[in-house]
Amino acid sequence: MIRSLEDAETTPECVLVGTSEWIRTATAELADEAVTVAGVVSAASDLTDDRLETATCVLTDERAALAAVDGACPIVYAIDSTADEAIDDLRTEGATEIVVKRSVQKPRLLAQRLQRTLAAAECERERALTDRHRYRAALDALSNATSHVLAVDSEPAACESLVDIVADVLEIDGVVYRFDDRATELRPVAYSAAYESTAGSPAAVEPNGSSIWETFITGEPSTADDIATSPAAPAATAAQSGLAVSLGEHGVFVAVSSAPDADVSGAVELVEPFVVATEAALDWIGQRQRFHDRERELERHARRLERLDAALETRRDIEQFLLAADSRTALERGVLARLTECDACSLAWFGEPDANGNSLEPRAHAGHDRGYLDAVTVPTVDESTAEPAGRAARAKAPVYVENVAASVHDGAWRGDALSRNVQCVYAVPLVYDGVLYGVLSIYGDQQDAFDEPFRSMLADLSGTIAYAIDAVNRTHALSATDRTEVALLQRRIAPVSALFSADFREACGELDAVCRYEVEKTDHTAV
Questions:
Q1: Average pLDDT over residues 376-404
Q2: b/e for 44-59, b at 16 or more Cβ within 10 A?
Q3: DSSP code, position 19
Q4: 212 CB-near residues (< 8 Å, 6+ apart)
Q5: What pLDDT is attached to residue 95?
Q6: What φ, ψ does residue 296 adopt, rounded to 5°?
Q7: How far apart are alpha carbons 378 and 386 in whole angstroms?
């Protein structure tokens, strides 16, 4: 129902523009209908800002006035019934209301049309103010949310924040797709609770030319209706409209709505800044992750270098000692003492095959034995249940058990070891020129106590130890041969010396003393 001017809460103040007879008549009669004529100007060029500020509407039949008012206030444009002016063109140029002069000859009817125009304009202003208020509120909320998303410390949290905030602030259901460079597709990683009921369970988007994929490739937002029917949503989707906004190299954010009159695409100006902030957060998180990964890699490399340096230092000490050792017993004790000085090694021992070669017998040990060597037998068999030293002897290859407790029932030796806090074992065979001289075994109180650099060092050193044992054995064998030859020489000389003079026998005695001295000297200096 159109309200009359008498029902109006305020009195319209109208500015009339034009010189036609119809304008002059309206000027004279509108005052009787409670319409205040704020002014009359003969030409649109006379419409100043001051004049428009005092008016609540403009009535004119001059087309130039449409441009002059330029939306400053509602404008009612009067046309002749025979005019060929296009209504749509007039509205495009700014006419709020269009009346036919003959249909509003009566001043009261014209006043009602003016009132209706003012009422409609007021509703439009209120709606615009409401929209503007909501827009500003949304911007404020998104601005606050931006600081939140920039503070998250993981990529999943950033994606979930984007979905949650858009759902809370804009009441739009969304999903975040992350690009999987291995599968060459966009995978859904986060979506709002209502998204599944609106668009179905989101599926991966392959490079198939869809709006979502094109948004990812081009970086330009998509506001096409086919987002709702893209491969990202099932065929039975209830979505009516949607938009897709690029997250740069990270992926795409997609929003949809099931409301018939919804226009999600109109929210792109609100959504896009927050998506950009989320992209920046993902960039920062990625850079920070790469930095931490690099930092951890450098730390691992530094620790490896430290362990390698420690292994090389142990190797140098052992090799120097091998050069000075004068017996196998001294050699073995020295090697074991240096190995047990390492923090990782709690027990070390040398084992030698028995006469039948069926088992290993301890020759020497160092560290905390706790009765382990007395409790176990070490058969030389290459079986998983056998003690590692015996397996190494049979296979003539290193054996490493990094976690004794991993298969506690796989061999009786494991129970004996665990009861004495032995957590890992490393055994290396001592082989030189194809001959097995024994096995060197080390034990640790921690799982995986012997890292790769240490094991590699000891495996390389095992050949040197075997060579040193062989050299010591050969030296002692040569010394024994020399003593035997001197004794035989003495027995041969004694009968002959009796046939010669005392002086000659004295000379032979001196020769015998010299021989004994040289033999004893050789025994003490042999390596």
A1: 94
A2: beebeeebbeebbbbb
A3: -
A4: 177, 186, 205, 222, 227, 230, 231, 232, 244, 252, 254
A5: 76
A6: -65, -35
A7: 7
Q: Which helix (H) or strand (E) holds 311?
A: helix 268-324
The packing angle between helices 268-324 and 328-340, to 10°, is 150
Looking at residue 170, the DSSP 8-state letter turns out to be H
Domains 5-128 and 325-470 share a fold: no
- The token pair that represents 200 in the structure block: 């179905």
Domain ranges of the chain: 5-128, 154-289, 325-470, 475-525
Q: What six digits make up the tokens of 40?
A: 């009359």
Nearest by Cα to 136 from 243, 265, 255, 270: 270
pTM: 0.50
What separation in angstroms does the CA of 80 have from each of 22, 57, 77, 84, 512?
10, 20, 10, 9, 156
Nearest Cα residue to 347 out of 450, 460, 480, 500: 450
Judge residue 361's burial from the number of C-beta atoms within 10 Å of its C-beta, 0-12 exposed, 13-18 middle, 19 or more buried.
middle
| Pairing of the two strands 360-367 and 185-191 | unpaired
Q: What is the DSSP letter of 255?
A: E
Out of 232-241, 271-280, 386-395, which region has the weakest mean confidence (pLDDT)?
Answer: 232-241
Among 324, 326, 327, 333, CA closest to 362: 333
Buried b (16+ CB within 10 A) or exposed e, 300-320: eeeeeeebbebbeebbebbee
pLDDT at residue 60 in the model: 79
- DSSP states of 62-111: -THHHHHHTTSS-EEEEE-TT----HHHHHHHT-SEEEEGGGG-SHHHHH
Band (pLDDT 50/70/90 cuts) for residue 108 is low
pLDDT one-digit tens code per residue, 115-173:
677 666 666 666 655 666 666 766 666 666 667 666 777 888 888 888 887 787 777 88
Give the pLDDT band of residue 396 (cuts 50, 70, 90).
Answer: very high
Task: Please provide the CATH number assigned to the domain covering 154-289.
Answer: 3.30.450.40
> Is pLDDT of 508 > 70?
no
CB 17 within 8 A of CB 37: no
Q: What is the pLDDT of residues 427-479, one digit of tens each?
A: 999 999 999 999 999 999 999 999 999 999 999 999 999 999 999 988 876 65
Q: Give, for 37, the enclosing helix (H) or strand (E).
A: strand 36-41
Nearest 5°: phi and psi at 75? -135, 130
Confidence at 489, pLDDT banded by 50, 70, 90: very low
Q: What is the CATH number of domain 5-128?
A: 3.40.50.2300
β-sheet bridge partners, residue 251: 178
Model confidence band, residue 13 (pLDDT cutoffs 50, 70, 90):
confident
Query: Class of 325-470 per CATH?
Result: alpha beta
Q: Which residues pair with 379 in a beta bridge?
A: 359
d(CA 38, CA 54): 7
